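To whoever is on call:

I kicked off a structure prediction for a single chain this morning and the downstream step that reads the tokens threw a length-mismatch warning. I double-checked the sequence; it's 138 residues and nothing unusual in it as far as I can see. Pasting both halves so you can look.
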Amino acid sequence: MFLREGELSRLLLALQLSLPQEQIPETLIFDEVEAGLGGKAAVLAGYKLRELSEKCRVILITHEATIAALADQHFVVMRNGNESSIKEIDGEERVAEIARMLSGNATLPEAQEHARKLLSEELTSSSKNRKMHKLMYK
């Protein structure tokens, strides 16, 4: 069997969630776990990652704004020719980055409004995880 895109990451995520706490590694790294997913499935993957992050350190590479908005910390990797740099962002920089991920345009007012909504404390808190499960499985 050949796993492609984010399938291997999703399989690893499922396996890690099923392990007892003492068997979960201290740090897990996922690369584009949302690849090939859309809509509710991508959002659910984000909530499962958030759930896992309560048990260990999770490092995630993603291009999905709804998943990035769930993170406690957000880093951007920038390339300039042959050099790369990494920068932690928060506040308005994070709003702009989430807006860019949503629309391709960091300054679009509608995208910024959506980004602010995704980043709101109500939506990113642990209680949201439970609320979202209820909404998705009505």
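Update from on-call: the warning came from a stale cache, not from the record. Cleared it. Sanity check on the structure: Residues 39-53 form the longest helix (15 residues).
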